[in-house]
Design goal:
By secondary structure, this protein is α+β, with helices and mostly antiparallel strands. Among the domains are: about 40 residues, no CATH class; about 110 residues, Glutaredoxin (3-Layer(aba) Sandwich). It is about 25% helix and about 15% strand. The protein is built from five helices and six strands; from the N terminus they run αββαβαβαββα. The strands form two sheets. It has a four-stranded mixed β-sheet, covered by helices on one side. A two-stranded antiparallel ribbon has the order 1-2. A hairpin with a 5-residue loop joins strand 5 and strand 6.
Length: about 230
């Protein structure tokens, strides 16, 4: 045999022989197709390509493993000498307390009567008893029973009357009384309440409309009586 033939035989053995060994692990099964033709199907034997699962499951942790360890409480080491020198302090019992009945003080309440002028209501002067030239200073008020401002001014006017009623005349004229229409025109009445301070001859010294502070009226009266 020539050297060329021997080299070809060696190459063939390296290629063909492993292939034959691999096919020995295959199982040949004869099956018949519905059409009647015999076919040979090669079923590979089960080969474990992996020694372990390529997709391992989730790792399980030990029940004793704590992902959030608690704060460790430091241990206080006390020497034997310190233990002997320490003294045990016993709490003294609290003194017994006796509950004594304490009588509450008697509170005496003194009620101050409300001044009459604060409870006073609107009152109307008889128009027949009023004249402009009375020879005396006069404080004239045009009011209305339905006016809230007139109601608010009633206690103020009554208090002033109690203080100065013996020195000047206080006149209260109801604007809804037709008998006062002539006086309203003479004094040029506009709206209720309206106040006039008249001189001894009936001349107008001062006037106000609406709610008037008590101190302002008092100051005007004081200036007349000086």
């Amino acid at each position: 045999m020539s050297s060329a033939c021997m080299a070809f035989q060696r190459i063939t053995e390296r290629v063909i022989i492993p292939t034959v060994q691999q096919t020995q692990n295959l199982l040949l099964t004869n099956t018949v197709t519905p059409g009647g033709y015999d076919t040979t199907q090669i079923e590979p034997t089960q080969i474990d390509y992996y020694t372990s699962s390529p997709y391992p499951g989730l790792e399980t942790y030990s029940a004793t493993w704590d992902p959030y360890p608690s704060i460790q409480t430091p241990t206080l080491n006390v020497s034997e000498t310190e233990t002997k020198n320490s003294k045990l302090v016993t709490a003294s019992p609290s003194p017994s307390t006796t509950t004594s009945s304490i009588s509450s003080p008697t509170i005496s309440i003194t009620t101050t009567p409300i001044p009459s002028w604060m409870l006073s209501k609107l009152k109307a002067t008889d128009p027949k008893k009023f004249t402009l030239a009375s020879g005396k200073y006069q404080l004239v008020e045009f009011f209305a029973f339905w006016s809230g401002t007139s109601q608010a001014m009633a206690p103020i006017m009554n208090r002033l009357e109690l203080e100065y009623g013996d020195q000047i005349n206080f006149i209260y004229l109801d604007i809804d009384n037709p008998a006062n229409d002539r006086i309203k025109k003479l004094l040029k009445y506009k709206t209720a309440p309206q106040f006039f301070i008249l001189g001894t001859t009936g001349n107008v010294i001062k006037q106000w409309r609406g709610y008037v502070d008590e101190s302002e009226i008092t100051q005007s009266i004081e200036s007349l009586l000086k």
